[in-house]
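In keeping with the milestone schedule agreed at the kick-off meeting, the structural modelling team has produced records for the first pair of proteins. Each record is given below as a sequence line and a structure-token line. The laboratory manager (R.T.) confirmed that both were archived under the project's standard naming scheme.
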Amino acid sequence: MQTIFVHVKCELGRAYEVADEAALGVEQISEVYSVSGQYDLLMKCYLDDGTDIGHFVTESVQRLPGVKDTFTTICFKAFG
């Protein structure tokens, strides 16, 4: 299992819509948080080993209505 975090910048006024659609419509997204700073949302995703991360992000996250930009962090090891 691979864990990634996707930071999402939304079109103005659409963060809640994007969060709802992501949480309900994309199985691999386990948690969605609203955050402060450069991005509006932070999505925690669990992908099966061997899943193409770039393909998942471009096809499943960037195509959500209201998504303007993304930044992906790939995780290596969880502590604690």
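The second protein of the pair:
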Amino acid sequence: MTTMTKPAAKPGCPHFSSGPCAKRPGWSLKALDGAFLGRSHRAKDGKARLKLAIDKTKTLLGLPAGFHCAVVPASDTGAYEMAMWAMLGARGVEALAWESFGAGWVTDITRQLKLKDARVTVAEYGHLPDLAKVDFTRDVLFTANGTTSGVRIPNYDWIPADRAGLTFVDATSAAFAQPVDWSKVDVFTFSWQKVLGGEAAHGMLILSPRAVARLEAHTPAWPMPKIFRMTKSGKFMKEIFEGETINTPSMLALEDYLDALKWAESIGGAKALAARADANARTLNDWVDRTAWIENLAAVSATRSNTSVCLKFVDPVVTKLSLDAQATFAKAIASLLDKEGVANDIAFYRDAPPGLRIWTGSTVEAADVAALLPWLYWAFAIEKAKIA
């Protein structure tokens, strides 16, 4: 078979989107039959369902004693915004950015909160900044796994346990997929629709005891929207972290998250989830290593994401094109594979370098990643023939 010959076998599930990502294997709407619907989420049974999601999350992630976890509005973005608005301003801030969402937090601290003592450390797509130079006398903000760049932190060893500032970890595509050293984390956020394939609009906010102490000791200089408030009369509102959500959550989406957590427990928990993601990413990256026309955007193998794998074209015929033309080329490949029912939503993120972005998280089956690879060859050959 030549690369121009259309492959016969297709992935069983074409859902390779980087968010929302694929539902867990075997999922159907019947998984939501037990949803607590048509009732107040503040009713005893409603709060119990929310508390169950919180407790299962804490257990699966292995949170240490004294850490708090809450269901909050507006996905990972809402969770991270809550933490920034409520806690920043007590000391200097260092924001690390190496992809779109990290850059978004930089915008917030410089243009919205307008922090006077803010240091911004930026790296190009595909690279991390020099982590050894981070100043932990400051509060430090970073994205654990760059969904739009495919670059992740290799570990948490670069963070001192005796730091003076707090660490704010945007982990929305890293939670349940990459190990976490909780002694190095003060704020940790993620969303249901990423690694576990839940439904959107809800985020999870995890706080260390040091973060709680900051909340109680620090009064922000700016007005605090009600939706961001986590203290009352200077005291931590613990009830938010026990199932009394700030506003009305979707109990249908909650049931879907509970189903995902149940599945995660059934396959062996967080380690098993990470192992599935590692295997999927390895299958894709092994193919990349033996394919001449494409490379991983992440320049260093130790920093390559195991969930959101971002790829760039290195074929001379493609790289001689303008960036706009390269973007058109990448989108054409993604569109062709979408039309064939092989892969949905695998074009690069709009702010990232032109290429492909393929989700390999734990809800994706390894056989589907393997089945996708011949189609990538085929689509590339078809579209290259149009420009060669």
